[in-house]
Amino acid sequence: MAAASPMPLAELHLHIEGTLEPELIFALAERNGIELPYANLDELRSRYEFTDLQSFLDLYYANMAVLRTEQDFADMTRAYLARAAAAGVRHAEIMMDPQAHLSRGVSLETCVNGVASVLATSEEEFGVSTLLIAAFLRDLSEDSALEVLEGLLAMNAPIAGIGLDSAEVGNPPSKFTRLFARAGEAGLRKIAHAGEEGPPSYIVEALDVLAVERIDHGIRCMEDPELVERLVNDRVPLTVCPLSNVRLRAVDMLAAHPLPAMLAAGLNVSVNSDDPAYFGGYVDSNFAQLESVLGLSEFDRVRLAANSIRSSFASEERKQELLAELSG
Ligand SMILES: Nc1ncnc2[nH]cnc12
Ligand SMILES: [Zn+2]
């Protein structure tokens, strides 16, 4: 008997650099003549024990050293799409961190074109429609972000929107007021990480000051009942990443994850993998573990998938197509 096909959904919170699997890190290092500070795969894997967001970011940025050519970015993107398609992902909104490559001497053209060349044919090749989102590193200056955004606009980069990521605490959304205003003028969609490690007030700022349309993570909203009421009333999408939250110790264990309470409160939540090569699984593993540990029901699974499709920036036609598949 053929295996049941996975539930169709949209992945809205995914860092393409976070899909760089250990095997590909070694393959790209060899291809590019880069000496890694790990003798073998096991030694690299032994570093995947994180105590907080920063301890992960240190390894995430260090491992990017192997990404040098357009082909490297294309290979990483192709590997993600193949794996995501197997997990049921039918639409993906993919973040990349251009500043993390520019600082290593890799040009905007190299990193953007390498990813975008694969996304351009993702629907035909993998059955996954895609959009690219340029994310900006909030621990760098706003001027740096503005300069990179102008570079992306000047090269007519095929980006649908901008995001805000990296070390959250101490780098509030309001630090990037001009960046998000400029993105709005340029007709770009706007999202930001907020309330992952940072306080609920960062979620409020991202909405009020940056006018974002979606919040990445947002789990700490649960500490502020008034904010929860607002997010429910406005149907603000929260792209939750359960395995990421456990691995980065934003929550103690999956059994204590706020997702069931968020669903019960009526929040518009979806399930996403964030940096699947680092956090123990793609979106299907996130769902499987939620089911086994939290007893997530079939009803909630379908609701989460429908939320992901409705909260995406896909065309209305594509959304209807995917919603029909989900209900069929
Ligand atoms: N979970 C995360 N939070 C903030 N920045 C990130 N960059 C990649 N993954 C991230
Ligand atoms: Zn993220």
TrEMBL record:
Domain of life according to the entry: Bacteria
Pfam families (alphabetical): A_deaminase
Catalytic activity: adenine + H2O + H(+) = hypoxanthine + NH4(+)
Any single GO CC term annotated in Swiss-Prot or TrEMBL for this entry: cytosol
Sequence similarity: Belongs to the metallo-dependent hydrolases superfamily. Adenosine and AMP deaminases family. Adenine deaminase type 2 subfamily.
Record's protein name: Adenine deaminase
Cofactor: binding comment: Binds 1 zinc ion per subunit.
EC number of the protein: 3.5.4.2
Domain Adenosine deaminase: 8-326
GO BP terms, alphabetized: adenine catabolic process; hypoxanthine salvage; nucleotide metabolic process; purine ribonucleoside monophosphate biosynthetic process
Entry binding sites for substrate: 275
PROSITE patterns according to UniProt: A_DEAMINASE
SUPFAM superfamilies: Metallo-dependent hydrolases
CDD domains: ADA (cd01320)
Keywords: Cytoplasm, Hydrolase, Metal-binding, Nucleotide metabolism, Zinc
InterPro entries: A/AMP_deam_AS, A_deaminase_dom, ADE, Ado/ade_deaminase, Metal_Hydrolase
Species name: Arthrobacter globiformis (strain ATCC 8010 / DSM 20124 / JCM 1332 / NBRC 12137 / NCIMB 8907 / NRRL B-2979 / 168)
Positions bound to Zn(2+): 13, 15, 193, 274
Enzyme class: hydrolase
Site (Important for catalytic activity): 217
GO molecular function: adenine deaminase activity; zinc ion binding
